[in-house]
Amino acid sequence: MKIEDFFNQKNIIDLSFFNFSNAITACYYARENLEILKVNDNFLSFFPILGNVNNVYFPDVLEQIGLPGKQIEEFVRDINEKGMVLIPEIKISIDGKERIYFLLSTRTKNDSFTYLNGVQGQFVDRTVEFNLRKERQNLLDEKIRDREIIEEKSRQLASLAKRLAKYLSPQIYQSIFKNEDGGEHKHARKNLTIFLSDIVKFTDLADTLEPERLATVINSYLSEMSLIAVECGGTIDKFIGDAVLIFFGDPETEGETEDALKCAEMAIRMLKRVGELNKHWKKLGVIDGLKVRMGIATGFCTVGNFGSDLRLDYTVLGSPVNMAARLQTMAEHNSILIDEYTKDLINDHVSSKYIDEITPKGFARPVQVYRINDFKSAEHRNRRKSLTHVGERVEVSVLDSSNIRAAIEELKHIQEKFERDYADLEDKKKNLTS
Fold it and tell me: Residues 91, 125: contact at Cβ < 8 Å?
């Protein structure tokens, strides 16, 4: 006789299931063939659609609560082969609401009471946990999306700032983006050196050249002049067609003398560069090349933002601006005229020639006019930068530095051509000597 024969089978099963009966999870106990013997009250409350499940095949219960057939097959296989099954996520719709359960089942074995050999398991309601995890994931996804949006907006702003920089002088651009008051500069009265230039008979040129060639010529001209202006520290006020207005002494100044010297250096370099580029422009249809006139005047101006609520222009107002315009108009082709105040500031370093004494319209007293020749010392002349190189065998001059990368590519092509030609010459030499 076995020990299990001395005890009531039902009482032993009830006793072994006692802890599960009071569990907060949905527990079940089934025979080895997966026929359900006992479930706790929470099992019925978790799945009210099941009703009485005693003596029911457990896989059928899984099917009834909505488990996919493939998952049920895996459950039966694993409980038979491995003796344990863990299903971390079971989605069940109850009363129109989706709930998430965790199912853990294992085979039991008892040598003393063979009727305790079977399968027991429990469903754990993880709906709250999964909802919290889902909310956390949603928050993470939103954070990632927000970060992507911010990065995209940052890229757009960087691109916008880069494009905007082309419409502003570098000094003005920096002052706007660094100014904490939103870029609303106060107006100021400053001693500035004003530069104004234009192209002689540009209207005739505009009427004769094709639009594309005209754009190429004027864009390369303005690019070269702007590059020199920036290198010399000038603030580019505006382009008025072919005319260029530049001033020195705001927003930064190194003193009125140095400002005037920088302006003179810029004008001399511009004239020299125009001469270098004329060969290039003649190929584009500018038959006689470009000729420019320049005027420079120094004096007190009002500088700041002028305009309306819709559009502002950071510019200068004052008689020196008018004086520079008068000097530019009366200048001969490819010459630079300056007023007497500018001449006094730069006289120690720049040679100039007296031209005339004029009383421009709107001015109360006559003004002496001088034409700039060049810097007196080699030190100042050597400060000029140009994209040229003179070696022992080759002289290189970049005609249009507005697209320096294209110039570099062109030099590479020239190198490749020379290498091919050199190889051909070497081959011919070998043929002649053989």
Answer: no
pLDDT, one tens digit per residue, over 300-320 is: 999 988 878 777 788 899 999
First to last CA, the chain: 118
* Cα–Cα distance measured from residue 97 to residue 130, given in angstroms and rounded to the nearest whole number: 14
| CB of 226 closer than 8 Å to CB of 258 | no
- Sign, CA dihedral 155-156-157-161, equals positive
**Tokens read off for 293:** 């006139």
pLDDT in tens, 15-67: 566 556 667 788 888 889 999 888 888 887 888 767 778 889 999 988 888 88
Query: What is the identity of the amino acid at 428?
Result: K
Q: Name the domain boundary from 102, 125, 148.
A: 125
> Is the domain of 380 the same as that of 391?
no
Residues 295 and 399 in one domain: no
Residue of 356, 247, 257, 355 lying closest to 302 (CA atoms): 247
The domain that holds 112 is classified in CATH as 3.30.450.20
89, 121: one domain: yes
By residue range, what is the domain housing residue 404?
A: 387-434
Give yes or no for a contact between 50 and 65, defined as CB atoms under 8 angstroms apart.
Answer: yes
Structure tokens at 296: 């420079």
Domain count within the chain: 3
Calpha distance 394→392 (Å, rounded) = 6
Pair (216, 332) in one structural domain: yes
User: What CATH number is associated with residue 382?
Assistant: 3.30.70.1230
Identify each DSSP E strand in 53-187 by its residue range. Answer: 84-94, 97-108, 118-125
Bridge partners for 390 per DSSP: 395
Distance separating alpha carbons of residues 176 and 185, to the nearest angstrom: 8
On whether both 375 and 361 belong to a single domain, the answer is: yes
User: Where does the pLDDT of residue 279 fall: very low under 50, low under 70, confident under 90, or very high at 90 and above?
Assistant: confident
The reported pTM is 0.57
Q: Report the chain's mean pLDDT, rounded to a whole number.
A: 83
Q: Which residues contact 264 (CB under 8 A, 6 or more apart)?
A: 296, 336, 338, 342, 346, 350, 372, 375
Shortest CA distance to 399 belongs to which of 410, 414, 384, 387?
Answer: 387
